[in-house]
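Changelog entry: the ABC-2 type transport system permease protein record was regenerated in this release. Current contents:
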Amino acid sequence: MTVLHWRYLLLEQIRVPIGLVSTAAFPALSLLFFVVPFDYGAADETAAVVGLSVFAVMSSFLFTFGVGVADDRERSWDPYLRTLPVAAWPRIAGRILSGATFALVAIIPVIVVGALFTQATATVPRLVLGIVALVVAGLPFLLGGLAIGYSLPVKAALPVTQLIFFPVAFAGGLLLPPQLFPGWLEAVSLVTPARGARELVVWAVQDTAPDTLALVVLAGWTVLTAALAVWAYRRDEGRRFR
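Regenerated C-alpha cells:
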C-alpha cells in the first residue's frame, strides 16, 4: 500500500511538473549567478553548494507538504481515502517518500552546476554522506510542512509557508555565508533549523567542526515539528471524521 501511494503521488506531480521545475531551478540559478562568476576558493564554494542544496530540500519539503497536503485536504479524493478501512501510515509514508524523492531530484541541478562550474570538491563517500545528512537535516521542514498542511486551508497554507521559508532560509545562512552576518543576526541564525541543517551537511561533506548549539537546536526543532505534525493530523482527523 505504501508503494502504491508513493507511485500515485509521483505520477500526480510528474503530470504537472512546473512546481518541481521551479523548486529545482532557483537554487541552481542562484549558484550560477552569485557564486560561479567569482573566485571564492574551493572551501567556500563547496559550502555554497551545500547551502543551496539545503535550500532546495527545505523548499521542496515545505511546499510539497505544507501547500500540497492542504490542497489535497480540500479535494474529495483525500477524504474518501481517509474513510477506507486501511491504516493511515501507508498513505502518510507514501507521501513522505514522494516528497523525499522530489527533494533529492531538486538537488541534482545544484550538484551538477557545482561540479561543472565551481571549485567545489567532495569525495564520493563524502557526497553520499552529505545526501544522507540532507535527508536528516530536512526532517524539521518535512514535519513542519505536514503540520502546516494539516492545520490550514490551502489559501492560508501558501502565504504562511512563504513567510516562514524565506526568512528562515536567509537567517540560516543558506543564501549568504554566516561569516558575513553581524552579531545580532548570527545569534538569530543559531536558533533557526536552517542553520543547524547547513552545519550538519557541511560537516558531512567537508568534515569541518559544526557549531554544537546549531545541531542541538536542529534536534529540538525536529522534536517540536514532529509533535506539531502529530497534533495537527489528529486535530484534523477529529474535526472531519467524527
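The chain has a mean pLDDT of 88.
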